[in-house]
Automatic annotation (TrEMBL):
InterPro entries: CHP03016_PEP-CTERM, Porin_dom_sf
Listed name of the protein: Uncharacterized protein (PEP-CTERM system associated)
Region span, Disordered: 193-217, 463-507
Domain of life: Bacteria
Signal peptide start-end: 1-28
Skewed-composition ranges (Polar residues): 463-489
Keywords for the protein's UniProt record, in alphabetical order: Signal
Amino acid sequence: MAGLHRLPRRHAACLLACGLLGMATVQAQTLDAGGSGADGGEGTKRLGMTVVPRIGVSETWTDNLTLAPDGQRDRALITSVSPGLSITSRSGWLRGTLDYQMDGLLYLKSDRSSRVQNQLQARGNAELVQSRLFVDANANISQQTISAFGQSSPSGELDNPNRTEVRTLTVSPYWRGMLSTLASFELRATGQMRDSSEGGAGASSASGDTKEGSLNLSLSGPQGRALNWGLQAYTRRIHYELTGLDNRSSSAVATLSWIPDVDWVLGVSGGREKSDYFGNDTSSIYGASLKWTPTPRTTLSGDWQRHSYGNSHNAVLEHRMTQLVLRLTSTQSVSTGSDPSGQMTNYQLLDLQYSSIEPDAAKRDALVRSLLAALGLSPSAISSTGFLTNTATLQQRNELALAWTSPRMTLTLAANDNKSRALGTTANATDDLALASNIRQRGVTLSVAYRFTPLSTGNVTYTRQHSSGDGSGNALSNGMSSLTASTTHRLGPRTDASLGLRHTRSDDQSLGYRENAIYAQMTQRF
């Protein structure tokens, strides 16, 4: 396919490594299972690793492939072949999950070139030295919006120049230990790289490519005391590839915590901080925190800290019931790039809800993914995808996430209200924050799934997104609404088929469009 030739060699090598890892894992399972002599399941269980390959095939007809205004629509058929692999390790020195999918898109009745999209969600923890030396690693590949004021689209299959593929890799080795009986310590280094594809109008001018490194040292007093202390020092540097801008920050903070009751934790902090967001600045920082856990299913936590460039806070209310999980969050902090991971996805919501039912993370992962497939819900669905930036921002996020399940019905709701403003200025900035000093993004996604029979489910999803900004006397605004209705049928223990309809409307004055689509999909897990 043409899209395959556009992949840089390092990305193709990465994908090849994922495939080899999957094949090696399958082979290891087979050999281990064969070694048991009696039951292959015994070998798989002893290995502590689960591998689930899959392949999906879909056909979509759309009346507006290029998201053009009325009268200029480009009707097309889209064929998608999507091999994927899920790996879960729950024992041994390496634990974690990996879910990778490659979407090969072929456009018929259109002159658009075929292309390949990648999706990856991986997280793992390796224990290199028992109880002492560890490594955390996270990797993500997803489709993200370049500009908050460009076109929004309901699907990555459509030809939208305002979407790009973003790859993020984070590696964090750390060392834990004790200083006699006086204190415990953790020394952690973190490195992160974010890279986006070239392609699409504006992709090269707002790439969002970054490299980031940090070093953190934490000390804390012996556990179990009602009154305890802590010390934390960190330094961080981030480099923006497009602008050449470097941001550095460092701080040293002392904390004092008090546990007046088993349900309460109170704390205060104070120290010094140095940053260069608005020139070299050294100032005092101080703050307070609390955590209240009235029941095992309810948690309320919050902290506030004063900074010279803008105060930060983080407040979370989380409540779980047998059929309901509710999460309210409000945060304000420095963001170094577009990262929607702070928003709750369908997968995270149901994972949180079933955490008390199935404490084993690997078994819960399989349970949640099976439920989402049966209900026809996207595991990674969120209400907004943010936008790419080439500078540090002060970002405020207010989010609501709710999931309710019953024997026949599942309802999920995610709503967000995000505000961003640039920290500092750069002469060659070309992202949205060069156009608007403040950007506000609001979104909501409501999904209702109903189980007609044990093997058949219907699903209706409504999504609304809106972005606005103020700058240089001009008001910037963009919005999109999308309604999808689908039905999913379980054809076999590992086979699902879906049929759906979609209607999308963009209300942007210059980029407005309407799109209707019908699609059919089949997924086979092995």
